[in-house]
Amino acid sequence: MTDRIIIEGTAGTTPQLRTIPSGRQVANLRVASTLRKQDPATGQWADAGTNWYSVAAWGDLAAHVVDSIRQGDPVLVVGRQRIVTWGDADRPSTTIEIEADVIGHSLRFGTATFQRASRAAAESAASPRPVGEGSGVDAQGWAAPGASAPADALPDARQPALVGIDAETPF
Asked: Are 98 and 80 in contact (CB under 8 A)?
């Protein structure tokens, strides 16, 4: 039996993408979730322990996670929990693993900008090949993975490049 779990925490590692022998992609990262408690007598906040989770994201989600999440980012993870016990009888160890269905940035203390991945971008993540033949834009007008941002983009290197969007766009 697997349990669904939702955690809010901090990416403890930058996600690592690898391809397994079957050809599927998986991204792995560690997420730390720290409980904060306020001492009623003093009003001071203190950490009350940290739980660490090993998170795996598969397929298109894996590619999106690698493109979006960096170590130290606040994240939300929704997925299936699995508790794995390993080691020998004298020194057993336990790992909590989450097979992610959804991973995103937590907006509790900051903002984020969403960029829809095009079908061509998802396909290119699965099999490396040029998208849009060097133009940086796919057939639907979305910025291709790795395309450089326009010169007037915000300083954040992960700011998405919006192509074909102007002040008259109705959204």
From this structure: yes
